[in-house]
Amino acid sequence: VIVGSHLLTNIGELTTNDPTFGDYSALGRLHDAAICFEDGYVVWAGPAGAAPAADEATDCAGAAVVPGFVDSHTHLVFAGDRLAEFTARAAGQPYDTGGIMDTVTATRAASSTELAEQARRRRAALRRSGATTVEVKSGYELTVEGERRLLEVAAHVGDEVTFLGAHVVPPDYATDREAYVELVAGEMLEACAPLAGWADVFCDRGAFTVGEARFILERARERGLGLRVHGNQRDDSGGVELAVELGAASVDHCSHVNDGDLEMLAASMTVATLLPGAEFSTGSSYPSGRRLLDAGVTVALATDCNPGTSYVTSMPFVIALAVREMGLSPDEALWAATRGGARALRRNDVGWLGVGARAHAVLLEVPAAAHLAYQPGSDHVARVFDGAS
Ligand code: NIG
Ligand code: FE
User: Fold this and answer.
1) What is the DSSP letter of 305?
2) Which ligand is in closest contact with the Cα of 168?
3) Distance between CA atoms of 127 and 137, rounded to whole angstroms?
């Protein structure tokens, strides 16, 4: 008996995302399987009949087990809502980045306790839906002290923390954008860098230009932060090219990608993160994930949970959208929501369930993970394991 071990057995379909298992596909899939965790890590996986003894055992009764979802892009720390904006969009109004300032106003007015409480609730909802690793960004105060405060809250609820002082240019800098860019890349970055692992810039129409984004991201890189880019959501904005040029870990949205971008992405270490919740909520057309995958690009899926464009806390819902609207197969979508998300965060310890990986897993209520797309509207999560169990 392995001390402190936990065996999940009678698993109908086990997705390990470790190609050395099972059918040797990227999904590393086993049937009638078992997996053993010890001290928060996977120590064994294989046929149920060959499972080792363990201190504790869970009979999965033929249901599927998948790696915990890795949500590599969220904006969980905010106050207020944008229901009126959503309702107006439902009546035909297009998305405009101006709404971000409504959330900034509400967030600035909220106490840190209130912000932390709301962010915790959103994080709990994500976990209930199977997300075991979550990235959280700042970006809704846009002042030196405010962004710092948001990062402090983010550190409590997120596994990865991203500084997004360059979300939009606040109106008080409208006539002097350069001053805001200097502030973000200077004083704000100095105050925020110790609290974040990553820096992100919204490089798009209505936000920051490629030149402004490059300036900020280069300063962030000098301070040791990893880079991520909100790119090509509203336009063919040059964000993808910039992300690849700077060696960013991911470029997110990718709603408008040209053939040159596709080639650059395929030849790079930069992950293309698709956020179908944003297209869903804004009523925009979905980009083709198929086109990215066929070109050899590594794709991740994330919720983009935020009050303006994607008030979504369910990775299974994101998977369902990606399958139906972006041309991913259920297997590709599952991989993108797990190992793809881990790649986007440059994490090798999560997003898979091979030996040595963290024991972050989700026991589903369905016999195969493809049911997440097939039966949308419910998360089908029976139990979440995130290392503590
Ligand atoms: O990822 N695109 C930029 N930021 C968010 C939207 C934020 C907002 O509208 O509040 C996004 O979609
Ligand atoms: Fe976002």
Assistant:
1) B
2) 1
3) 17
Q: Let me know: does 73 contact 302? Beta carbons within 8 Å.
A: yes
35 and 353 in contact (C-beta within 8 Å)?
Answer: yes
Residue 3's pLDDT band (boundaries 50, 70, 90)? low
Confirm or reject: Cβ of 76 under 6 Å from ligand 1: no
Per DSSP (E only), the strands in the chain are 2-15, 29-38, 41-47, 54-59, 64-67, 69-71, 131-137, 160-166, 198-203, 226-231, 250-253, 271-274, 299-301, 360-364, 381-386
- Residues in the chain, overall count: 389
Verify whether ligand 1 is closer than 6 Å to residue 103 (CB atom). yes
State pLDDT tens for residues 112-169. Answer: 999 999 999 999 999 999 999 999 999 999 999 999 999 999 999 999 999 999 999 9
Encode pLDDT of 337-350 as tens digits: 999 999 999 999 99
Tokens of 94: 């297009």
Alpha carbon separation from 91 to 88, 233, 282 (Å, rounded): 5, 21, 11
Query: Strands, DSSP E only, in 115-248?
Result: 131-137, 160-166, 198-203, 226-231
Q: Measured between alpha carbons, how far is 249 from 11 in angstroms, rounded to an integer? A: 34
Whether 250 is in the pocket of ligand 1, judged by its Cβ within 6 Å, is no
β partners of residue 194: none
Q: Are 137 and 170 in contact (CB under 8 A)?
A: no
If one counts every other C-beta atom within 10 angstroms of the C-beta of residue 296, the result is 11
Q: What is the CB neighbour count within 10 angstroms for residue 288? A: 16
The first and second tokens of residue 76, run together, are 């969980």
Answer yes or no: are the C-beta atoms of 337 and 69 closer than 8 Å.
yes
Q: Which of 337, 333, 370 is nearest to 351 (CA)?
A: 337
Q: How many Å apart are CA 68 and CA 17, to the nearest integer?
A: 11
Task: For ligand 1, pick from 72, 141, 201, 230 the residue to mutate: most ligand atoms within 8 Å of CB.
Answer: 230
Residue 309: CB within 6 Å of ligand 1? yes
d(CA 358, CA 139): 30
Alpha-helical runs (H) found in 223-361 = 239-245, 259-266, 276-282, 289-294, 315-326, 330-335, 341-344
